[in-house]
Design goal:
By secondary structure, the protein is α/β, with parallel strands linked by helices. The strands form 3 sheets. It has a 5-stranded mixed sheet with strand order 2-1-3-5-4, with helices on both faces. A hairpin with a 2-residue loop joins strand 7 and strand 8. The longest helix is centred in the N-terminal third of the chain and has 27 residues. The radius of gyration is 19 Å and the shape is globular. The structure holds zinc ion. The site of zinc ion has 3 residues, from helix 5.
């Protein structure tokens, strides 16, 4: 009897999450009103420099993300003027749940459930409309963190965790990572080779038809790097050097073929 209740409860939770994922997918990619994206800064190591950086953050530090989305949406034929709206929210003190190291299906499922609950607890500041997509940005002090963990964006739950650097000259590069993870929450897939990090051709090239093909002038957002030649790839310093490619536009339903 207890076993049946437990299984019934589990099926119920699964059904609810499946329904809400389907509902989120439709409501975030219909592009008939601006998609609301919220940025929630976090100081992961408690560093003083990260504190100062977060304190100085202003909405305009993320304005490049909104212009990037709006310009690219209109280039791909989306009719509304503002495809997205990006807002800065107050700092969050609770750290996101650590991602499972091994990554079995069950531990991933459990982790994504914990992420949803985490976002629910921390992305509802009083007196403000909660955003549809919640991006938690952990600002690491670059003087003692050289490389940061992988950022993630989950379509299930519309939540992203970004690892960024608390340095003024990294703001542009941080925005590239934020835009990439936002697109994951909308269903876009990575377009680079996981082993070599090379952009995939043609989907990971901003201008696959460009003649001559090299050097590419822009990076495709889900490839993260642009090809200087067949074996040299560089990361963009800001969203000024990034485009949304045709395959990504299709995945997030900016286009339908
Ligand atoms: Zn990715």
């Amino acid at each position: 009897m207890w076993r049946q209740i437990r299984i019934g409860f589990l099926l119920f939770v699964l059904a609810i999450t499946a329904w809400s994922t389907w509902h989120d997918r439709l409501s975030t990619t219909d592009w008939d009103e601006p998609l609301h994206i919220g940025i929630f800064p976090i100081n992961p190591e408690g560093a003083g420099s990260s504190d100062a950086y977060i304190e100085n953050l202003a909405g305009e530090d993320f304005a490049a993300i909104a212009s990037f989305f709006n310009e690219e949406a209109s280039r791909h034929g989306v009719a509304i003027t503002n495809a997205v709206r990006v807002d800065l929210f107050p700092e969050v003190t609770e750290l996101p749940p650590a991602s499972p190291p091994g990554g079995s299906m069950l531990s991933n499922l459990w982790w994504s459930l914990k992420m949803r609950l985490y976002a629910r607890r921390n992305a509802r500041p009083p007196n403000r409309a909660p955003p549809q997509v919640r991006i938690f940005v952990q600002y690491h002090d670059p003087s003692f963190t050289r490389s940061v963990p992988h950022s993630v964006g989950l379509q299930k739950g519309l939540v992203g965790v970004v690892h960024a650097f608390a340095a003024a000259d990294m703001t542009g590069a941080n925005n590239v990572v934020i835009a990439h993870e936002v697109l994951h929450t909308l269903g876009a897939t990575d377009k680079y080779d996981l082993a070599t990090l090379a952009p995939l051709y043609p989907s990971g090239y901003a201008e696959p038809e460009r003649e001559p093909r090299f050097p590419q002038e822009f990076a495709e957002i889900m490839a993260g790097r642009y090809a200087i030649d067949a074996d040299t790839f560089e990361m963009p310093e800001s969203l000024d050097e990034v485009l949304v490619g045709d395959q990504t536009a299709l995945e997030i339903r900016w286009t339908d073929r």
